[in-house]
Predict the 3D structure of the following.
Amino acid sequence: LPLQAGEMSNLYYLVVPIAGGVLLIIWILIVVFVFCKGEEDE
């Protein structure tokens, strides 16, 4: 069972940075979209 706990720990450390990267990409896309939309209104 210690192996399972270790695997869960490794999975956690693998998923968290990926989730953070995805959130960062989504945030950048939203900023770019809002910026482009604002330029169109001008």
